[in-house]
């Protein structure tokens, strides 16, 4: 299982990164040392090894400084929280205790100006992030982020329940769960805040833009499954990884499952590019929407640019960036029909443009 080698990724989007990334990282490290939710020196090194400033600077390469800084703080926080309370640790297979922990945590985010009921450094740091978002974003953006954060915690709770029951989910259930458990909803909700522009609800909540947001989320989530497979194998928690799910569902060898994973993500990537071009080129698309759609593309590309060099994965035998898998010029599967996954088949439906009004 640990000998699987990544293949080239199909993502015809140019790389980009925010020019202030080094300064943003320095500020973030000072912030980390203020709240110390990493525990000890080893935990600190692990958190710093996520390269979270680089990660999000690739998602929003033209972002505003304050919004991008707040987003980077949450990404550092999110990786640390995921490692010790979601993927591993005493709560990672105990749904009752996990929910009892994340309920007050979520509420603390929604009320970041009030003293929390515990001195948990994760709670205190999350409240600081909530206050920063309120200061640099709009009330709508803050609410969208809080809602997305709740969706993520729900997805993780689903994952924890599967682990507790020793259950390997079906491909359909795993896909639906992974849309939340990966951390994609809050990560992408931060794009508006990092951009410094609020996308009108009529556009952001339209079927086409909802589909594009979910596509970007799932591509990055499946790509993370590929990048992290060696790490998860070493740490013995590959129970809910796309490779594992495909092997269980279809009786595939590891190499066959890897090839199928690439085919699935490439078909979603091709659909994303088609729909994004149509929506972004619409004559009534707002500048904020076009900037958001641009960032979704940067998120897909930036996620892999980051993953190929980050110590989080390279420390587990992943290939260094100079010897990485590179980029594919064409998708590994060129079929344009919907994937046979009910949870996401609607992405291939005829999607109305976001500004079109429906007659009663």
Walk me through this protein's architecture.
- This protein is mostly helical.
- It has a single domain (9-348), classed as Farnesyl Diphosphate Synthase (Orthogonal Bundle), CATH 1.10.600.10.
- Helices cover 63% and strands 1% of the residues.
- The chain has helices at 21-35, 41-48, 52-59, 65-87, 95-110, 121-136, 139-165, 171-181, 184-195, 201-204, 207-227, 229-234, 242-250, 254-280, 287-307, 311-314; strands at 9-10, 327-328.
- It has a two-stranded parallel sheet with strand order 1-2.
- The radius of gyration is 19 Å and the shape is globular.
- It starts with 8 loop residues before the first strand and ends in a 32-residue tail after the last strand.
- Residues 315-323 have low confidence and may be disordered.
Keywords:
16 helices; 360 residues; Farnesyl Diphosphate Synthase; 63% helix; mainly alpha
Text of the CATH class? Mainly Alpha
Shape: globular
Please identify which CATH superfamily we are dealing with: Farnesyl Diphosphate Synthase
Order of helices and strands: EHHHHHHHHHHHHHHHHE
Describe the strand arrangement of the main beta sheet, using strand numbers. 1-2
As a percent range, the share of helical residues equals 55-70%
Can you name the CATH architecture?
A: Orthogonal Bundle
**Strand residue percentage:** under 5%
Report the C-alpha radius of gyration, rounded.
Answer: 19 Å
Total strands: 2
Enter the CATH topology name: Farnesyl Diphosphate Synthase
| Amino-to-carboxy terminus distance | 56 Å
How many helical elements? 16
Biggest sheet details = 2 strands, parallel
């Amino acid at each position: 299982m640990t000998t699987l080698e990544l293949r080239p990724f199909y993502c015809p989007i140019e790389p980009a990164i925010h020019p202030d990334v080094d300064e943003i990282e320095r500020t973030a490290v000072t912030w980390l040392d203020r709240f110390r939710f990493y525990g000890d020196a080893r935990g600190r090194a692990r958190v710093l090894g996520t390269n979270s400033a680089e990660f999000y600077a690739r998602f929003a390469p033209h972002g505003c400084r304050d919004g991008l800084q707040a987003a980077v703080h949450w990404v550092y926080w999110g990786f640390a929280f995921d490692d010790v309370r979601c993927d591993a640790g005493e709560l990672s297979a105990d749904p009752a205790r996990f929910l009892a922990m994340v309920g007050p945590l979520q509420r603390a985010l929604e009320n970041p100006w009030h003293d929390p009921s515990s001195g948990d450094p994760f709670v205190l740091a999350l409240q600081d992030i909530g206050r920063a978002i309120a200061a640099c974003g709009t009330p709508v953006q803050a609410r969208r982020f809080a809602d997305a954060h709740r969706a993520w915690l729900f997805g993780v709770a689903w994952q924890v329940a599967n682990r507790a029951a020793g259950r390997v989910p079906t491909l359909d259930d795993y896909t639906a769960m992974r849309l939340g458990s990966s951390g994609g909803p809050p990560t992408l909700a931060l794009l508006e805040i990092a951009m410094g522009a609020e996308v009108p609800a009529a556009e952001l909540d339209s079927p086409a833009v909802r589909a594009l947001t979910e596509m970007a989320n799932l591509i990055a989530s499946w790509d993370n499954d590929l990048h992290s497979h060696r790490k998860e194998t070493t740490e013995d928690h590959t129970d809910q990884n796309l490779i594992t799910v495909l092997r269980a569902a279809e009786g595939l060898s590891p190499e066959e499952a890897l090839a199928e994973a690439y085919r699935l993500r490439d078909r979603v990537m091709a659909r994303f590019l088609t729909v994004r071009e149509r929506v972004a080129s619409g004559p009534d698309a707002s500048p904020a929407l076009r900037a958001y759609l641009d960032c979704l593309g940067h998120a897909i590309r930036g996620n892999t640019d980051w993953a190929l060099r980050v110590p989080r994965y390279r420390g587990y035998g992943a290939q260094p960036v100079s010897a990485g898998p590179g980029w594919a010029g064409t998708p590994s599967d060129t079929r344009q029909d919907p994937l046979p996954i009910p949870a996401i088949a609607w992405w291939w439906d005829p999607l109305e443009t976001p500004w079109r009004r429906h007659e009663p």
